[in-house]
Amino acid sequence: MSAHALLLSLMIQSAFVSLNAWLGHAIGITTPLTTWFLVWPLAKIAGLVPMSLGGLGVRDVTFAALLMPFGATPTQALVTSLLWQTVLMMGGLVGGGVWWFENRRNRQSGARRISPGLSSWRSRV
């Protein structure tokens, strides 16, 4: 089971890196995909430093600094990083909207409430 989880995690992270490379290519960054597999995870790790909310700013500047030696301008790298943040936020907003509408519909029909927390999961185990 843990091997499947690791494989799934690697596939998802690879898809994220590929999406970032695609966003970068769309705005003119022409570095190879292997560069993205080096730079993107390092910038994400730098974003874990507790200096800002959610790593915003720290991750973006690190991303720009790491991509500059590979021919990207700081502006291109920063825009790519902020585009990725926008993709994440939009995904969260869509997911939150689906959750809200489902809970609203279930409340009106008298069905059981859907909880986003672990407390409902623990009660079923």
Structure notes:
There is one protein chain. The chain has 125 residues and is mainly alpha-helical. The protein has one domain (2-124). Helix content is 74%, strand content 0%. It is built from five helices and no strands. It has helices at 2-26, 33-46, 58-67, 74-109, 118-124. The longest helix is centred in the last third of the chain and has 36 residues, at 74-109. It is elongated, with a radius of gyration of 19 Å.
Give the SSE map:
Elements: H1 2-26, H2 33-46, H3 58-67, H4 74-109, H5 118-124
Helix pairs in contact: 1-2, 1-4, 2-3, 3-4
Could you list the spans in which at least 5 consecutive residues all have pLDDT below 50?
Answer: none
Structural class: mainly alpha
Give the terminus-to-terminus CA distance.
18 Å
Number of helices: 5
What Rg is obtained from the alpha carbons, in whole angstroms? 19 Å
Shape descriptor: elongated
In short:
The protein has one domain (about 1-125). Helix content is about 75%, strand content about 0%. It has helices at about 1-25, 35-45, 60-65, 75-110, 120-125.
